[in-house]
Amino acid sequence: MPKLNLAGIAVASLAFYLIGYLWYGVIFTDAWMAAEGVTPSEAQEQSPVYMIGGLLITILQVIGLSLVLKWKGATGMGAAVTTAAIVWALFALPFCMYAYLYLPRHDSTLLMIDASHLLAGWVVAAAILSRFK
Fold first, then answer.
1. What is the pLDDT of residue 45?
2. What separation, in Å, do the N-terminal and C-terminal C-alpha atoms of the chain show?
3. Which one of 4, 55, 106, 110 counts the least CB within 10 Å of its CB?
4. DSSP readout, 17-53?
5. How far apart are CA 33 and CA 89, in angstroms?
6. pLDDT for 1
7. For residues 70 and 4, is the Cβ–Cβ distance under 8 A?
8. How far is CA 26 from CA 19, 23, 56, 80, in A?
9. How many CA atoms lie within 13 A of 83 on its CB side?
10. pLDDT tens for the chain, residues 1 to 133
11. CB within 8 A of 118, min separation 6: which ones?
């Protein structure tokens, strides 16, 4: 297994997690809650366990992205960002589209919010990882 830079993974994971906070908690809050059918009071009652789970999922994504970048040899920022965008288009976007296709509501707003969050997170994480050698 390739040696991964733990400091880079930590910084990239925190940045990705912050993007998630901004995406769902600041920028697209109202649109996301409407698309999910969540009320503000329901959002406030969410267990902190979910936040911890979200952080762990983010860390796993960044570890996976770090491995892909190592295997690809994408060491520069341009190559890392391009690789992240391609991997997003071939893996993350199709996974998001499963929810769009199989949920009864087929909400395109939710698809766009979720998929764009992952794209932004993966691209920023790749840019950060490229700075850690």
1. 83
2. 16
3. 106
4. HHHHHHIIIIISHHHHHHHHT--HHHHHT--HHHHHH
5. 25
6. 64
7. yes
8. 10, 6, 21, 27
9. 22
10. 679 999 999 999 999 999 999 999 999 999 999 988 888 888 888 888 988 999 999 999 999 999 999 999 998 999 999 999 999 999 999 999 998 898 887 889 999 999 999 999 999 999 999 999 7
11. 88, 92, 93, 96
Measured CA distances, 41 to 45, 46, 130 (Å)? 6, 9, 40
Q: CA-CA-CA-CA torsion for 82, 85, 87, 90, nearest 10 degrees?
A: -130
Q: Answer for the pair 80, 68: CB distance below 8 angstroms, yes or no.
A: no
Residue 119 structure tokens: 């794209």
What single-letter amino acid sits at 63? I
Q: Which residue has the tokens 């996976």?
A: 64
Which residue carries 């409407």 as its tokens?
34
Q: Which residues of 74-96 are buried (b: 16+ CB within 10 A; e: fewer)?
A: beeeeebbebbeebbeeebbeeb
Question: Hey, what amino acid is at 116?
Answer: S
The token pair that represents 28 in the structure block: 């697209």
Do you know the residue count of the chain?
A: 133
